[in-house]
Amino acid sequence: MTTTERTGLVLSGVTLRLGDGDSVVTALDHVDLTVAPGELVAVVGPSGAGKSSLLAVAGALTIPDEGTVTIDGQDIATMSSRARAAYRRDHIGFVFQSGNLLPALTALDQLRLVGTLSRRRADDRDPAQLLADVGMAHRADRRPHQLSGGERQRIGIARALVGRPSLLLVDEPTAALDRARSHEVVQLLAKETKQTAVATVMVTHDHDVLEHCDRVVEMIDGRLSAG
Amino acid sequence: MFLALRELRFARSRFTLMGSVVALIAVLMVLLSGLSSGLVNDGVSGLQRLPVTAFAFDAGTKLDSAFSRSVVDADQVARWREQPGVQDAAPFGTMLVNTRSNRGVPIDLALFGVEPGSFLTPTAAEGSGLGAPDGLVVSRTALDAGLRIGDVLTVDRIGTRLTVVGVTADQHTFGHVDVAYLPLAAWRRLHAGVGPGEELRTQQADQATAVAIRGDGTIDLAAGDAAAGTSAVTKETSYGASPGYTAETSTLTLIQVFLYAISALVVGAFFTVWTINRRHELAVLRAMGAARRYLLRDGLVQALVILTASIAVGVAGGAGFGGLMGGTGVPFALEAPAVTFASLLLVLLGLFGAATAIVRVAAIDPLAALGGQR
Ligand SMILES: Nc1ncnc2c1ncn2[C@@H]1O[C@H](COP(=O)(O)OP(=O)(O)OP(=O)(O)O)[C@@H](O)[C@H]1O
Ligand SMILES: [Mg+2]
Fold this sequence. Notes:
A: Rossmann fold; 6-stranded mixed β-sheet; binds magnesium ion; cell membrane (chain B); transmembrane (chain B); membrane (chain B); ABC-4/HrtB_transporter (chain B); transport (chain B)
């Protein structure tokens, strides 16, 4: 979709304050983070540390109060809300907790939906092939309520990859899964990260799965340190 | 479209429920529309069918009683005929009479007195046209009341005998009473209350109720009024002078306005609940980069599909129901343009209700997609 060279995600000096008026929380406090293409970085830390906020800023869902966010060399903090939506659509993949699939759609249609979000999608991966790549070809016609948590998460990952994103952001993908499923899902993430040279940031509480990650960083009170 | 249609299928029980409500509203709307067209027909179809642009009543006549009170003379007709833009002008008489036919059928008639050969002369679809001094050409609906060609009617009190010689092709009624056309000379005698064998006073020999004017759009009514000493109104305005017309139409219009408001509210409320249920889903779509326009279009497609489908069902049901009322004497007339207009209005108002609900939710913060279900 774009000819820009892949250089990954760079956050520098990112500060995000949340809340209004009297109760302002510094969710991110001068955070620096670089994730290279093909690298899977895990973010761990206690509840309320600012992990989801980090994903929100890196994923152009919100703009930081200070600092810069660049993806493949492009500064996304200066974009309008409409331009950020288009940027998310074309360059960023999200995997949410518990999959967040659309209840009305079959597994295959979850992936095909991505292709309907804009007209110029010639570069997209083939939904059926991608579904097979994540091992869900035999579930193509099932709707979310007919799928297990692990299956939903795999489909959520496939959905995030349809548009060949530069950046993949994953929020607690294993929160609802047992140990074996958790390993499978994170292994899938690691495999896809390598194969598609996407820069992946995964927030997790699950220390078991860290072995599949290239790097672990820890977030405490909005500050980031090497884990 | 992609998501909209799949959701319609997935949540079809919910959509069907709401569609049934809209369909019922559409049934009501069709019935009201039929009733209102029926009442208008019953009230003023006799005037509608006249090839007249305007009526000029005697100066100072109040409109609401003009057709019963106004009296104009031949001089006023002649002056109107000379006005620029006027193609023709003719004396026109109206009066209501109670009659009884030789076969014992009592019937009330609105007598329209016209000069045979003038542009007001009705065309008879059956029997002969206007011409015989006591010959009536009656509205088709008078046949339903029990009249036949050849019947002799006796006018109450005066005792004048009139013969039915012809029938018009369609309904001609005035103030819910069947119209009977008769030669103006006969009308003048009846209007003056002159019985058989009595003499009409010369002063009454050239009178009529109003000057019927036919012309193009350029007629200057005020100038004509000044020249002829009349108060002229367009044919459409003159409907207000038909007995009961204004009260009936305004009541029905009020009911229809309420119905439209209710349907917009129902559809709006449904889509508000529906979209609020989908908040999390919409936030996920926004996070995935769906434009607001995309969500809006999707929601409007859903609304449009439900509205058109349920209104089509409702209109069909209403028309079927209305067909059953045909023989009951209830004034009911379905007119395609009126029903089409009302259906389109229902669709538009429904879309408006849906759009106001969707716009608010499409503005949802995509941040809400992060973290679990909140
Ligand atoms: N909309 C908001 N308004 C105000 N404060 C907020 C808002 N969202 C989050 N916060 C606060 O910002 C801080 C960081 O929140 P964040 O959701 O990033 O934490 P987290 O590390 O993802 O926690 P968890 O592990 O529980 O998901 C918390 O103190 C939280 O209370
Ligand atoms: Mg979180």
